Amino acid sequence: MKIGAAYYPEHWPRERWPEDARMMQAAGFNLVRMAEFAWTRMEPREGMFDFAWLDEAVNLLGKHGIDTLLGTPTAAPPGWVVKQSPEILPRTADGHTIARLPARSQWLESVSQAGTSVRAPKTKSLSSNRIDRLRRSKNPAADSLFALIRQRAGDEGRGRLFKGAAFGSD
Fold this sequence. Notes:
The protein contains seven helices and six strands; from the N terminus they run E-H-E-H-H-E-H-E-H-E-H-H-E. By secondary structure, it is an alpha/beta fold.
């Protein structure tokens, strides 16, 4: 059975990561979910990718017997993506764009109280298109990440990297 939590190493100093991994291992965690809010960290500018920090975090967690589930990083698109494609911003059921999201819990509470639903219809297709472009790019960092995903997905040992939704069609 997998037991774990969400973990966002990009929000913590690297010096903290080993202690976090040790504490999660001591608590009996064997899985963490991460990266759903890391698009800006993964691609700070269009076409410029940085996965070194992600490789480091996944490897560190693996050394502590903790598998990693990568989420699709569409929950917080970078500003440059929103400027290029403002239609990806969430909208209320009546079509009003939510331009600046408050804290997730406040946002969900306000949507629930208003009795509306929120949709971001273009986000999934935009994310899929970006992943496809990344796969076709000759970017060494992207090649390394996809190689790591393929390697770990087939590994039955500890530290296996699960294929997340963004990378599931490899």
